Amino acid sequence: MSKITVIGGGNVGATTAQRLAEKELGDVVLVDIVEDMPQGKALDLMQSGPVYGYDTKVVGSNGYDATAGSDVVVITSGIPRKPGMSRDDLLKTNAGIVQSVTSQVAKTSPNAILIVVSNPLDAMTYVAHKVSGFPAERVLGMAGVLDSARFRTFLAMELGVSVEDVHATVLGGHGDTMVPVLDYSTVAGIPVGQLIPKDKLDAIVQRTRDGGAEIVKLLKTGSAYYAPSASAVEMVESILKDKKRVLPTAVLANGPYGIKNLFVGLPAVLGRKGLERIIEMKLSPAEQAALDKSAAAVKELCETVDKLMGW
Fold first, then answer.
1. Strands 58-61 and 72-75, bridge-based pairing
2. Nearest 5°: phi and psi at 256?
3. 3-141: which CATH topology?
4. Catalytic pick among 174, 178, 239, 271
5. In the annotation, is 129 catalytic?
6. pTM value surpassing 0.90
7. Where in the chain is the domain with CATH 3.40.50.720?
């Protein structure tokens, strides 16, 4: 039986644990610093099993001993973004939190695959890689799956079709510079550019970029967690079942798309080893330029982290 640890018992972490339990992907350990809270949520999830029909063992903990020997660790820890707060505002606080969490996890589960969900995503994945010392194929960031899901949702809403027939890829950093790749975004194989006028398509692209901020504004006291947790679980499932799904993932690029030594969202094959390979697709000059711009923004963010953390 596989073992999956979820660090952070807030909305994203708890919903991730719920989805993992329901899919029976492995035993789940939910960790949070708030005393008794993860234990309570774990017990609640266990008591859902008889009703929902799963036998997953769920344990809550305030420490890391229970996480020892995890196959996958999903890191959701960090303060949530508040209305009007930019992702960059989160930088120093969340870098410190991810640094602490990762150092603990690296000791107790030295062979685990890390999936980072904390924001600002690309920079936090960089922090986890640097602190853990794990090989790059075992440190992944969840961003592109979520961004692509939002893009697919808005395309399906515009066209009045099933989201199951909408395929889309969003590359680059998780934020204002993300790059929805229109040439590879299709409905039942038909490029979206043939189905949606350019002005409406541009508006959908912008709404995708603002997807997280739109939800923050509506909720007023929190940020998105249903879609982020679903996206993280899709990655976990591809890894533990060795499905080799091609999912847009924040991975360490060293050459593909002209990007060097940087965690950026790219099409990645995810299997039992973590990142198995990066798939290169031919981008238009405009899309390549947008990806370059996005990579430059991520690089700047990582350099800021280095300064803030004294690295």
1. unpaired
2. -60, 140
3. Rossmann fold (3.40.50)
4. 174
5. no
6. yes
7. 3-141
